[in-house]
Design a protein that fits this description.
The protein is of the alpha+beta class and 381 residues long. It folds into three domains: 55 residues, 434 Repressor (Amino-terminal Domain) (Orthogonal Bundle); 177 residues, no CATH class; 49 residues, no CATH class. 52% of the residues lie in helices and 7% in strands. It contains 17 helices and eight strands. Strands 3-7-6-8 form a four-stranded mixed β-sheet, with helices on both faces. A two-stranded antiparallel ribbon has the order 1-2. A hairpin with a 2-residue loop joins strand 1 and strand 2. The longest helix has 23 residues.
């Protein structure tokens, strides 16, 4: 058996990084306590198993000390007014795979002769949020009136995603790392991020968050693309961010979904709050969470009433039964984004991209699974 030296603090760091306790890992690695005490060295096979269990690249466990892992994009998340300094491995791995997908798509778009998208980086935060929101609605073709034929706001969300995809934006929605259901993403850590690029703008939405929250997150991250600023954020319809960019993006998102002047015209004096919220959500085809936020913005609610109503609405949404996971291949298309998925499958089938590389970006290991994904996108191998 091959036993190589390993610094005990690397083992403790890997556990802490993954948020796994010593007791939780001991059943799989009975001698872990002795490894961390420096009394026994793990074998190479045990080290590999430990790396998989803690989602750490095996090479890290050969370093003399734990590596620094700065986030690859600006971090606008805050907790009690402070930046969060220790991203989870699930968040990091999601960011890394999305960067790889974006890099691939950028080269693909360049090879196909696709022109840069003019809206990426077309504004600054000095432009009024209402002005930017109107430009976004025109670019996407997602004005309030265009949503009227949607039966529900959830249907409007699907159309919103499709419109962003048609505009050239890679929209990826997932609640797990790749296809690993044992690695869920935590919406309390982040709701989404934007990776700005003129050829391959990408928005990732944490699918573990409620669908009601996802609509606002998508609008918020699109505002980041119009700024041309990649960022990780946790801002939602209930947030009043301290960071100036986040606050501006929230204002743009709110105005994009529910223009304030249009909302004022719909208000009915003396109407009960629950009736107003339901009616306005149906009128604007947005979630009740967004309506509550706009009622606060227009001065129809004070801060305390808003927070109470928002918390109660969240509780009711959490109590609603969640649907089944659905067809794996259709779900995969949502996780990957239809624009990216179609481009990757077609490129691979045509021999321009190696199956090995495609499998890594998709998170699968079988050719038949990949071909089935293609068929779900109406692409025959």
């Amino acid at each position: 058996m091959i036993r190589a030296p390993i610094h005990p603090k690397l083992l403790r760091w890997a556990r802490d990084r993954a948020g796994i306790s010593l007791s939780d890992l001991t059943s799989h690695f009975p001698k872990l306590g002795k490894w961390e005490a420096g009394e026994v060295l793990p074998t190479l096979k045990q080290r590999e198993g430990f790396a998989r269990a803690t989602h750490v690249p095996i090479g890290y466990l050969f370093l003399p000390s734990p590596p620094a892992e700065p986030l690859p994009i600006p971090d606008f998340r805050t907790l009690a007014g402070r930046q969060i300094s220790h991203p989870s491995p699930n968040l990091l791995d999601t960011l890394y795979v999305c960067q790889e997908r974006q890099s691939w798509y950028r080269e693909h778009a360049r090879g196909m002769g696709q022109p840069p998208l003019g809206f990426v980086g077309s504004v600054t935060a000095r432009v009024a949020p209402a002005t930017v929101a109107e430009r976004m609605r025109q670019t996407l073709g997602f004005a309030v009136e265009a949503r009227r034929d949607c039966a529900t706001w959830t249907e409007a969300l699907r159309r919103f995603i499709a419109k962003a995809d048609e505009a050239g934006i890679l929209v990826m929605i997932s609640g797990i790392v790749l296809n690993n259901t044992h690695r869920p993403l935590n919406p309390e850590e982040f709701r989404g991020f934007a990776l700005a690029d003129p050829l391959a703008p990408l928005v990732f939405i944490n699918g573990a968050d409620t669908k009601a929250a996802q609509m606002f997150t998508l609008a918020h991250e699109l505002a980041h693309l119009w700024l041309g600023a990649s960022a990780l954020s946790d801002a939602g319809a209930d947030a009043l961010p301290n960071h100036t960019t986040e606050r501006w993006c929230n204002q743009v998102a709110a105005e994009f979904l529910v223009p304030l002047e249009a909302l004022r015209a719909e208000l009915v004096a003396g109407e009960a709050l629950h009736k107003s919220v339901g009616r306005l959500a149906r009128r604007f085809k947005v979630s009740t969470l967004v309506i509550l936020r706009r009622l606060l913005d227009v001065g129809h609610l004070d801060g305390d009433t808003f927070q109470h109503a928002y918390s109660e609405e969240l509780r009711q949404l959490a109590d609603k039964p969640k649907g089944a996971g659905g067809d794996f291949h259709l779900t995969s298309a949502v996780r990957l984004g239809r624009r990216f998925a179609r481009a990757l499958v077609e490129s691979t089938l045509e021999g321009h991209t190696l199956y090995r590389d495609a499998f890594r970006m998709v998170g699968i290991s079988k050719t038949e699974t990949f071909h089935a994904l293609g068929r779900s996108l109406e692409i025959e191998p």
